[in-house]
TrEMBL record:
Source superkingdom: Bacteria
GO biological process, one term: response to stress
Protein name per Swiss-Prot or TrEMBL: Transcriptional regulator
SMART domains: HTH_MARR
InterPro entries in alphabetical order: ArsR-like_HTH, HTH_MarR-typ, MarR/SlyA-like, WH-like_DNA-bd_sf, WH_DNA-bd_sf
Domain HTH marR-type: residue ranges: 4-136
A molecular-function term among this protein's GO annotations: DNA-binding transcription factor activity
Length: 168
């Protein structure tokens, strides 16, 4: 196989792995990867503000708010106004949310993060540089993307049948 084909096959494998894992998460938990990451962040931090959650999982506050709306509708999380500062709203897990997250499989990016972190720094930088070059070669360097590995709008529709935000 020539080098171009090898790169394209590797990219397709990454896309396919993300797709398959997202479908696995949806089938086993009924949740998306960003929803699981948000639940895990709430679990790990305890009562936490939306801004802190957004910073923790590297998503915008608007996206976190939308994801939290869906989790709240399913009874997995709640929002509570701060008693000390009425301007702040904290998120917390419900008992159902704790039960779901206790049994949820590890999101793909957590597995990747563990393995990537185990690499030597020079190897990490080589991978980052190569992938940034690939993104540039595909005219994708300006596309807004979060570090959450999820397939997004490819197969998701809300109950009204309209497209959802790719990370919800």
């Amino acid at each position: 196989m020539n080098p171009v084909d090898e790169v394209l096959v590797a990219l397709r494998r990454v896309i396919r792995a993300t797709d398959l894992h997202s479908k696995y998460l949806a089938k086993t938990t009924g949740l998306t990867a960003p929803q699981i990451l948000l639940l895990r962040a709430i679990r790990d931090k305890g009562r936490v503000t939306i801004g802190e959650l957004a910073n923790d999982i590297t998503l915008s506050q608007a996206t976190v708010t939308t994801i939290l709306d869906r989790l709240e509708a399913r009874g997995l999380a709640v929002r509570e106004r701060s008693t000390e500062d009425k301007r702040k709203v904290h998120a917390a897990l419900t008992d159902s949310g704790k039960a779901v997250i206790a049994q949820a499989p590890m999101p793909l990016q957590e597995q990747f993060t563990q393995q990537f972190s185990a690499l030597q720094e020079w190897e990490q930088m080589m991978i980052v540089s190569s992938l940034q070059r690939v993104a540039t070669m595909m005219d994708a360097q300006l596309i807004d993307a979060s570090p959450v590995l999820d397939i997004g709008q490819l197969d998701r529709r809300n109950t009204a049948g309209t497209d959802r935000h790719p990370l919800e």
